[in-house]
Specification:
single chain; mainly alpha; two-stranded antiparallel sheet; 6 helices
Length: 232
């Protein structure tokens, strides 16, 4: 079972890397096409807007659920020190535990939506391909999986509850305290179900990443343009 947990964590990390690469190459494509960083950012934000809306509303919903006041939601993209930021929401100051839960909300919601989308995809897709509902489900999966990861600002205080959770787990282990069997079984079943879902998402995202890279390459060749310095 530990191997399955490790595999799922590795798959999630690969999805994160693919999302970073997809966003950067999408921006690169628009930059080569428009030669304008602001316009490239705006056009990238338009493509990713449905996922961005889900991301910010996830923050808002969990914050309201936990009794933390929220302010305006901003969907205007901008550059920050850590890279491109497609949206933001104002969250009142709160304790590290609630702040971390709010920060992790898009990831939990994104994974939930991916599980639902992959469940309704015909399997295997290449043998049962149809425009409806395959294309909307695949597009939805790409948009959600490429916008569900939290930024550093969203997880600014996550080290506090993470450290406490690690120490608590170690303490319970050495004290011989075990978690309820039903809870352990439920978590194990969830992890087992995530394995094939993440595999499908990785395959879809890899395909879309290659398509965007190909578009950027073709655009550069046709317009005789190339990025000499690093675009950030």
């Amino acid at each position: 079972m530990l191997e399955t947990y490790g595999l799922v964590l590795l798959q999630l990390f690969l999805i994160f890397l693919l999302s970073q690469a997809f966003t950067k190459n999408l921006f690169l494509f628009w930059f080569l096409l428009t030669t304008s960083k602001p316009w490239a950012l705006r056009l990238s934000a338009v493509v990713l807007l449905p996922g961005t809306i889900i991301h910010e509303l996830s923050h808002w919903f969990v914050a309201e659920l936990l009794g933390v006041k929220t302010g305006a939601i901003d969907y205007m993209p901008r550059f920050e020190s850590e890279g491109m930021r497609m949206g933001s929401i104002q969250i009142a100051k709160t304790d590290p535990f609630r702040f971390t839960l709010i920060g992790l909300a898009p990831l939990v919601v994104g994974i939930s939506f991916m599980v639902i989308a992959v469940h309704f995809l015909p399997a295997p897709v290449w043998n049962h391909f149809s425009w409806w509902p395959t294309i909307p489900l695949i597009s939805f999966t790409v948009l959600v999986s490429n916008t569900m990861f939290s930024s550093k600002a969203d997880l600014g205080t996550a080290f506090v509850p993470a450290a406490l959770l690690v120490f608590l787990s170690i303490g319970l282990y050495f004290w011989g305290v075990s978690f309820p069997v039903n809870l352990v079984d439920a978590v194990n079943q969830l992890v087992i179900k995530l394995n094939p879902v993440f595999s499908v998402v990785i395959g879809i995202n890899l395909l879309f990443l290659l398509c965007v890279k190909a578009l950027a390459f073709i655009c550069g060749k046709l317009l005789h343009r190339r990025v000499i310095t690093h675009v950030n």
